[in-house]
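An instance noted here:
***
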Amino acid sequence: MTSATLRHSVWILRGNPLTAVAATGVLLFILVAIFGPWIVPYDPVASNVSEALLPPSAAHIAGTDQLGRDVFSRLVIAARLDLAIAVSAVGISFVIGAVVGSFCGYAGGRLDRGVGRFVDVMMAFPLFVLAMAMVAALGNRIENIVIATAIINLPFYIRFARAEVNVRRNVGWVEAARACGESHFSVVLRFLLPNILPAMAVQISLNLGWAILNAAGLSFIGLGVKPPTPEWGIMVAEGARFISTGRWWLVAFPGLALMLAVLCFNLLGDGMRDILDPRMRT
């Protein structure tokens, strides 16, 4: 990152405190995911029925669930799993979608039109329902959740890369690269693709929040991670049965963690759009 870009980023963060808060929140979630096993006070899967359904207290700051497991410990450990699923899925879809979309946008013609129609057909389906169908068919294992989430994110990156490369494929510096003997493969990977990556970073941030929500949603309806693995969607689903009995903490804390994670990634995406927008540098 150049000094000019760094100064511009600091200026944007000062003028938009929500972006600074979102960046801090994302960093906090990442640190919790990395160091979670060393900071939790209890074993997140160990049951102790004698302490079941205890409200928040000094010993259990987020209470305990129906099996006496510490809710806070499960929340912290679940952050690693949910973030890992989201990062893996978005990373796969970003790499494949950016490369495929870039080559299609550069080549144009029948290939571009064919891929464009395929993307339109995919986006015509409710994407969460499509993820449900894939996980139900493949089995509710973590790797299948990652694959399903990656597939339903692919259309966003293919469409974005196609549009951006299509605009740039005949500009002067691309013509100059071809005139210097660069192959079409090299022009796309060395010149066009790096040029559109900053703009795609915004989409990555937004999709990370959506991927977390998608993974939690699959777990909530029983098609995601299997119990007793700590996961935010599972915790909300299990706690929902006890809302009518006044055990609010079983739903409130995992729901709050899920909401804050998605909100932070979405707000960070909005801030990155301002940072990467050339018009904001004037």
Notes: The two ends are 19 Å apart (CA to CA). The chain has one domain: 15-42+57-280. The mean pLDDT is 86. The CA atoms of residues 93 and 151 lie 7 Å apart.
